[in-house]
Design a protein that fits this description.
Elements lengths: L8 H29 L6 H12 L27 H14 L6 H15 L6 H17 L9 H7 L1 H16 L6 H15 L8
């Protein structure tokens, strides 16, 4: 069962908004678990769960890696037959660099890499933003406070987000892993979040 945006835009938007609330609730639980389990809490099951909730009732393939090609503007993600291997590498890279990279570096890598691979049919951006916040909080050792959390701030500051993704893509194409622009972008948003009061996922 699912709703197409073209068939009922109002209902589609309502479901999407409710899914986002449920995803944030799930994300809070995942962060609480991650704070106890560390790098081992980051795996493909976490990613599947976050994506499934994000696209429930608007996509029939939530929580499963894609088995078909997708195109994102000028970016052509890896062939669907390579998605499983790229995702294994992604998870492994995060786990192996858990204590080497700073919280912002880890979050920047997660946000960029998941968008680069684009492993899902729908909800890649929503899942990547949730993953970014998960990595930031768990690596930092706390659920960060603020009335408007990082995923929401990224959605509202799309130009900086897109510029940072493009810069990281170009560096990767040139044979380098350079997330400096993404790190600076996230650092500014996190600073703005922490300048506020309590956490409110609604």
């Amino acid at each position: 069962m699912f709703v197409l945006k073209e068939d009922d835009p109002e209902l589609f938007t309502k479901i999407q908004e409710n899914n986002l609330i449920r995803q944030y609730d799930l994300l809070t639980n995942c962060i609480e678990i991650g704070l106890k389990q560390g790098p081992h809490s980051f795996d493909k099951f976490l990613l599947w769960a976050l994506n499934h909730v994000a696209v429930a009732n608007i996509s029939q393939f939530g929580g499963r890696f894609r088995k078909e090609p997708v195109y994102v503007g000028d970016h052509i993600p890896p062939h669907f037959q390579q998605v499983d291997e790229w995702m294994d590498r992604f998870v492994s890279t995060v786990q192996e660099n858990w204590y080497i990279w700073t919280p912002t570096e880890l979050a920047a890598y997660g946000l960029w890499r998941l968008n680069w691979i684009h492993p899902f049919i729908e909800g890649n951006g929503r899942t990547a933003r949730a993953v970014c916040y998960f990595l930031l909080c768990v690596r930092a050792g706390a659920l960060l406070h603020g009335r408007k959390i990082l995923p929401e701030r990224i959605r509202e500051n799309r130009q900086g987000y897109e510029n940072a993704l493009i810069a990281a893509d170009r560096a990767w194409e040139a044979g380098h892993l350079d997330l400096a622009l993404m790190e600076d972008y996230l650092a500014g948003l996190v600073e703005a979040q922490l300048s506020e009061g309590r956490t409110d996922f609604r």
